[in-house]
Amino acid sequence: MSGTEHGVTLGTPIGLTVPNEDMRPGDYGSMSDIPRPSHADYTYQYKYGTKTSSGGGRASARETIGRVAAGAIAEKFLRLRYGVEIVAWVSSIGDIEMKEDVVDTITRERVDSHPTRCPDAAVADQMTALVQECRNAEDSVGGVVSCVIRNSPVGLGEPCFDKLQATLAHAMMSIPATKGFEIGSGFRGTTQRGSAHNDMFVRKGDRLGTVTNNSGGVQGGISNGEPIVLRVAFKPPATIGKEQATVTYDGTSAVLAAKGRHDPCVVPRAIPIVEAMAALALADAALVQLSRHAAVLPFNALPPLQNVVTPLNPAKAQDPTKPADDRAHS
User: Fold this and answer.
1) Which of 141, 147, 248, 314 is a good FRET partner for 108, with 20 to 30 A between their CA atoms?
2) How many Cα atoms occupy the beta-carbon half-sphere of 290 within 13 Å?
3) What are the distances in angstroms from CA 238 to CA 44, 79, 207, 246, 309?
4) What residue ranges define each of the domains in the chain, with the CATH number in brackets?
5) In sequence order, what are the residues at sequence separation of 6 or more whose Cβ sits closer than 8 angstroms to the Cβ of residue 50?
6) d(C-alpha 244, C-alpha 262), whole Å
7) pTM of this structure
C-alpha cells in the first residue's frame, strides 16, 4: 500500500493489506452460544462484553499474516546488515520426536521438502500418519517448533527487563496456541551439574566463542555470537469436531462438535510465524544496539564541563552535625 517504490523502501511507514477472500462464517453458527473449550471465546466475552461472531477474531492465527509480512522486512535487514540466517523446523508432533541435531546445517529448502516441515524424512512420515489419525478421529495434536538464528552479532539484548531471551520469549509466546518456550538447554539443563552445563570459551577467529552451546547463544541476556537456539511448544488446536460435553454461556449443559475447516495440527503452519517473530525481536535488539553505538562519542570530542564541583578536601571536612552557618565560617 505504501512505503516502497521500484522495489526499495522510501523511509516512510510500510503499509500492507491482505484481503480474506475465502471466509466461511456459517461454519461457526453452532458455536455462537457455546464457548469453545480452551479457546478464547469465554475470556474475550468476559473482558470486552462482546466477541467476534466467527473465527476467534484476534485470537485466531489469521492475524499472524501481518507478523509474517513485517518479519520478512526485518529479516531482510538482518541478512543484509549482519548476514543473519533464521531457520525453524518441526522437531516434534505429539510423542514423535526428531533426534537429529541439525542446528548448524538446517536449511529452509530441507524444511520445506516435506509437508510436515520436519527435515527428517522417516520421522516426518510418522508425524503425517499421526496427524491423519487425529483428523480421522476428529481430534487434534500439538508439537514443538525449533528455531536457530545463525550469525547473530555479539552484544544484542538489554540488561534486566529486555534481555534477549526475554524479548524472544515475549515474541514467541504472543503467537496463538503457544504453551512453552525454551532457549539453549532449556528445562533439560536443570538436570545437569554446572561443570557439565558451562560452555567453555575458546578463540574463534577475532572473537571468543564457546565449545558447547548450552546457553543457546545468549549469556546474561546478551547474544554471545553463537547460534541462538530456541524451541516453542504449541498445544493441540482447541476447535475439534469430536463431541465434547460442556456448557453454554449461561451455564446450560450442552454438547459441542465444531463444524467447518479446522486443522488437526497447527505446528507445520507455525514455521514462518516463528521465523518472523524471531526476526522482529532480533531486529529491535539490533536497532537498540546501533543507536547506542551512534550515541557514543570519543571523550575528547565532548565539550568541556562547566562549573565543576571541586571534591571536598578531607582535611577541611567539617562535622555535619554542626549548624550550616558554623560550617560555612569555620
Assistant:
1) 141
2) 11
3) 15, 36, 47, 13, 66
4) 34-293 (3.60.150.10)
5) none
6) 16
7) 0.87
